[in-house]
Design a protein that fits this description.
homodimer, alpha/beta, 5-stranded parallel sheet, 12 helices, 25 strands
């Protein structure tokens, strides 16, 4: 008789797991059912800001596969189904049909928990008024765009200057709104160091954003059930639209209630490298898990589609009888706000201190192309390296077109525990339309290596 | 008394060495004189095609530093001076003043040989006619552009489909000439495998190049001292302008005549990792040396500005009392012809066979951005990996805007001897304007890892 695989959550992690498992085991051997409480599966959450901004006209473009596509591949998808309890002893889950309210009990042999993340939402009075949006699911994105089209708001306040806040802020600017950003930290993008974040702040101001930094939101003003203003510790900012971009945390409550371990620091479900929980046949993947940070050596939770995809694939291969592991992360991320590209990998200064590293930093400003070749842009690279060994610990890039993707070279170097000394001599590509004779990454490594040499000598 | 450093050749390698040595040792300690037989020092040879094509209007933009700049930093530069003999025993060189023909004898304590490369030029009758150009030095580039302005030729033939041939071919197309390419191999860019080179051929034909592949040039037709046609084994191609792009070889004759070792395979001067020749205080760097290929484990000579720069720097640091090494190359290169980007690193199939590797290949076609995000382009990545271990041996990319620079990630992976298995899980950056959720490099590694798994299983 066929084994039964249940998947909780129909996005990147869960559906990648289901697809991989199906590739390796046919329907006669493995029955697969995925429960998704929302109305869509397998979409690009990272694409939502571009749909909101109108870069992408049709939300369907964000959907990689429909429930019908999965059905054809022998994977049953049940939309509007929320799993509300996992019973590990009885090996079954309790599922709520959101339309109609019927409850189902479904047994499993294998279970994949891919419940994703939930946005932080402080308990402000009025937070449920019209015009306030957290943007986590495609449904949220559809509602936001509908509100933009319908109410034509002019003034928006984005609360929180992380990736989501910035990307949605850009989307609203593109649609012509006045956009204010409120951020508690001294600069946006607090995953960058302050000196690099300041470059982002400058670029945003140049694009017409109003920045209210080092301000804390204390509440919201509403009237007739609609938001009217965001109240900070210093002022009231009128707004017809408010975006909550305060970050997310792993949606691990269901797993925790079932008795599965959740990391005290990360809040994510604990798994081994094969993405197994401690319970036989129970796997977890995506934004709801904790992963190993290869530089800090600490468990972290990082909500990113690329990790969710890889982890889901690892789960599916393992359920399918193969062997795969997810080796962890190093905190690589990239984004763009208007024409400013921003990227980071490894540890920033705060993280390096917390992890106990004795480090130094080095900055370079260079160009994406040979100085004499038209169309090049400036970029700044900051690197963190360990004192003594010169091991590369982290890197940050702020620049324009052609700058940010260079972070992948630095990420690959960190992944391989390279020193800045070794990195400066790597055989990277050079031609005038592509880089100066020393690529900016090589210059960054060289400058850091010089500093290392001076410190050793002194 | 100050030591005396003589530098033979005033381009990337020689002048980098001089600059680094000067940074570390003042004029009271080290006297530095550079002899350059041409009229320019310290220019970007790689930028010449863009000057010829008119992308760069003023040739001065290609010059990083003038002799006067060097003089101010305490480095004497003598243009129009050709070193014609090195006497290692007497520790002196014989120098010919090209204007006037006077001969000088100059003694040295330290000597840097940076004599560069010379273009292959077959002994065809008529090869000295007007209208025939090898483009190696800035002087060559100036003469070519002058000829274009003066004679307004309409038809050009480029002989040889390597980097220089392609880049100059593009330059001539940009100036509106009809350009034919004659290449002995079945496709241009023979540093790529034939399947990838064919994509380059298609792109060139689309841009109006006439390709004559698998044809061998047998001679030139001239009249009134000017070139009239290129004669292949199959036809005569009328031409008012002919570009010789048959590659270069290390200009190591001077060193060889002095008794220094020259590699029998590579033709380049033999040095150790610190760029020392076997003679005390005699160093060599740049296109004239042989270097160690980290994948094939063989000595090779590769004429590239980025290597020359790094090697010159290594020499200068060592002469300056520091310690630096050049660890070798892995054959990374990048170019662009019209809007087609081309890159490679590591070994191609021919090279992998020659080096005795048992390898397999894998191809992927992907996009530079998320599929739904506007402005993305297609790219093809081919990887070579070792059977059994899965070690990444080489990679090639053909695509458009945003494709080629991804080669640096693959180069860094090869540099660190990564397997395709390990590479597929590296934490690379992802956001829709920058890549699909799996970056094309990760997809390429993943597909190769899958193939590896299947081969292991079978």
């Amino acid at each position: 008789m066929a084994e039964r695989l249940l998947v909780i959550g129909g996005d990147a992690a869960g559906m990648s797991a289901a697809s991989q498992a199906r590739r390796r085991r046919g329907p006669e051997d493995l029955n697969i059912v995925a429960f998704e409480k929302g109305r869509h599966v397998s979409y690009s959450a990272c694409g939502i800001p571009y749909y909101v901004g109108g870069v992408i006209e049709d939300a369907d473009e964000l959907i990689a596969r429909t429930p019908e596509d999965f059905r054809k591949r022998g994977i049953e998808v049940r939309l509007g189904h929320e799993v509300v309890e996992i019973d590990l002893a009885a090996r079954r889950v309790r599922v709520l049909e959101l339309d109609g309210g019927r409850e189902l009990i479904e047994g499993f042999d294998q279970l994949v928990i891919g419940t994703g993340a939930v946005p932080y939402c402080p308990p402000w009075p009025g937070a449920d008024a019209e015009g306030i949006f957290g943007v986590q699911t495609l449904g949220d994105g559809l509602r936001l765009r509908r509100a933009l089209d319908q109410f034509q708001p002019r003034r928006a306040v984005v609360i929180g200057g992380g990736y989501i806040g910035l990307e949605l802020g850009e989307a609203l600017r593109m649609r012509g709104l006045e956009v204010s950003l409120v951020e508690r930290a001294p600069q946006p993008m607090s995953t960058l160091d302050p000196d690099m974040g300041e470059m982002v702040a400058d670029a945003m101001r140049e694009k017409g954003f109003a920045l209210y930094l080092e301000e804390t939101v204390e509440g919201l003003e509403t009237g007739d059930g609609r938001v009217r203003a965001v109240v900070t510790d210093r002022r009231a900012l009128p707004a017809e639209l408010v975006i909550l971009g305060l970050g997310v945390r792993p949606n691990s409550g269901l797993a925790r209630a079932a008795g599965l371990a959740v990391g005290p620091e990360s809040g994510g479900i604990v798994t081994d490298l094969r993405m197994r929980t401690a319970a036989e046949g129970v796997w977890a993947a995506g934004d709801c898990v904790q992963v190993f940070h290869q530089v800090s050596r600490r468990p972290v939770s990082i909500a990113l589609g690329t990790h969710a995809n890889k982890q889901g694939r690892v789960v599916g291969i393992n359920i399918g009888g193969g062997y795969a592991t997810f080796p962890g992360v190093i905190g690589t991320a990239v984004t763009r706000i208007c024409d400013t590209e921003i990227a980071r990998t490894g540890l920033n200064e705060r993280e390096a201190r917390a992890a106990g590293f004795d480090y130094f930093t080095s900055h370079v400003r260079s160009t994406t192309r040979a100085g004499y070749y038209p169309g090049g842009t400036y970029l700044t690279i900051k690197v963190l390296a360990e004192r003594g060994s010169g091991r590369l610990l982290g890197a940050q890039i702020v620049g324009r077109e052609g700058a940010a993707k260079r972070i992948d070279v630095l990420a690959t170097a960190i992944w391989n525990r390279m020193s800045v000394d070794a990195l400066q001599m790597v055989d990277m590509s050079y031609a005038p339309p592509f880089s100066p004779v020393w690529d900016p990454v090589l210059i960054a490594a060289r400058k850091a290596a010089e500093k290392l040499g001076e410190e050793r000598a002194s």
